[in-house]
Write a structure and sequence with these properties.
seven-stranded mixed β-sheet; 7 strands; about 25% helix
């Protein structure tokens, strides 16, 4: 499984794409999948992160998600956010048109 995080990252979460529709999803503490990063389980340290990633294996075997991997997150007063631009873009959806995807939903712009 791929890992998109810097070595020594303090906090990590697991993301994947839902197989049914390709939507970006995040692994929750109860091993479910959510479209919201704020629902993601956050692991602190390497061992906890590896254990969290292992919880994604049954969903892969059941063809619910594809390619789960760890990525670095930052904890803030308002919740958690992706540490990398790559994951910020994945979370928001395609960047080619702001009237499509999650950007449109968040801004209230619809075609």
């Amino acid at each position: 499984m791929a890992q998109h995080t810097r070595k020594g990252a303090q906090f990590q979460a697991v993301t994947a794409n839902r197989l049914a529709d390709g939507i970006v999803v995040y692994l929750t503490a109860d091993a479910q999948w959510s479209e919201s990063l704020q629902d993601a389980a956050v692991a602190e340290g390497k061992e906890a992160a590896e254990a969290l990633l292992a919880k994604a294996a049954p969903a892969v075997e059941d063809n619910l998600v594809v390619e789960p991997y760890l990525f670095e997150v930052v904890r803030e007063d308002s919740g958690i956010r992706a540490a990398s631009v790559r994951e910020t873009i994945r979370q928001a959806g395609p960047t080619v048109r702001l009237d499509l995807g999650k950007q449109a939903e968040l801004s209230g712009v619809h075609s």
